[in-house]
Amino acid sequence: MECNDLEDLWRSISTHTSNSLLKKHLSEEKYIHLKKRSTKYGTTLADVIRSGCKNLDSKVGVYACDPESYKVFKDLLDPIICDYHRVKEVNHPKCDYGDVAKLNFRKLDEAENYIISTRVRIGRCHKGFSFPPILTNVQRKEMEEIIVKALNTLEGDLKGAYHSLESMSRNEYQQLVDDHIMFRDDNHTLRDAGGYDGWPVGRGVYLNNKKTFIVWVNEGDHLRFISMEKGSDLSSVYKRLIFALQQVEMKVEFAYDDKRGFLSNCPSNLGTCLRASVHLKMPELERCQEILNDICERHNLQLRGVNGEHTESAEAVYDVSNKRRLGLTEYQAVCEMYNGVEELIKTEQQLEEK
Ligand SMILES: Nc1ncnc2c1ncn2[C@@H]1O[C@H](COP(=O)(O)OP(=O)(O)OP(=O)(O)O)[C@@H](O)[C@H]1O
């Protein structure tokens, strides 16, 4: 849909059907109240709502383009945050990774019949920088330099190398995407939010030697710290991630707000910015959508296709993760996924026996 001017964007979202949170929470009264506002970085209402107005299939539909957007456009963004994370007010507890040294998640699928792989990722943004599209390539390069310097000090299991997208062939890039290691460049909602502006400048991936610890640099917003491995050993995956993050936190400052926790460009990704997922095979539950939806609803789980957001599932394998990232601690977010997946596996087994 070709529309860039604020009036056109408003006309589009107010006259068309959309199930997005943007459509639900942007009343005409709010539109009039917010339309002349801008942040000190120059973010306007048009920047915040552009992607959701152009992509009526969006689930959220808004992007903050700098940390200050959360305050300047609060009347629109706060209700969206509450709705997405299922909280009554925008408030976030202090960061709490749990007692990582003593962590003891039992393997949910020792025989590896259901869980193919486990992944936990945490998003972070550099303090003092804006988000797309209010972000230049010079700033991307500056951020890349800061993070690569910090990552290059990691040792032991976390030791690895940074691979810049600027010097990577398309084939190498595609192989990493196919291996679920690298970010893709085909998310239409992120594209319309300026997430791929200036591609591939300043983008890349840090990989440890075992390919179990990964850092995405300047994908859409700033950083994703990822730990993943085959099987269902959540303790191992989570410990590795937190240990790495704590070391980087000593060297790099991240954007943080007392009410919203760690910040990023998407209201769905605030607070803990943590998404813990398993690739779970569940052919029986796939045939019993009502039961599947009920379990997901009760445990606040999100289902995605096997190649990530906006993809279809294949051979009954789904990406199952915690949906809420704000209003609970990091440890609680991981437990939410763990408990929900435990029930999914039990139910899958019961259905098999019928
Ligand atoms: N448990 C998992 N095992 C293996 N790969 C996974 C797992 N969870 C996610 N992935 C892979 O990670 C990649 C990124 O997925 P996706 O973009 O949906 O999630 P994300 O990194 O959490 O970011 P966002 O929530 O912003 O979309 C995809 O290749 C996806 O298949």
UniProtKB/TrEMBL annotation:
Gene3D superfamilies: ATP:guanido phosphotransferase, N-terminal domain, Glutamine synthetase/guanido kinase, catalytic domain. It comes from the Eukaryota. PROSITE patterns: PHOSPHAGEN_KINASE, PHOSPHAGEN_KINASE_C, PHOSPHAGEN_KINASE_N. One of its GO terms (cellular component) is extracellular space. InterPro entries: ATP-guanido_PTrfase (IPR000749), ATP-guanido_PTrfase_AS (IPR022415), ATP-guanido_PTrfase_cat (IPR022414), ATP-guanido_PTrfase_N (IPR022413), ATP-guanido_PTrfase_N_sf (IPR036802), Gln_synth/guanido_kin_cat_dom (IPR014746). GO terms for molecular function: arginine kinase activity; ATP binding; creatine kinase activity. Belongs to the ATP:guanido phosphotransferase family. This is E2.7.3.3.
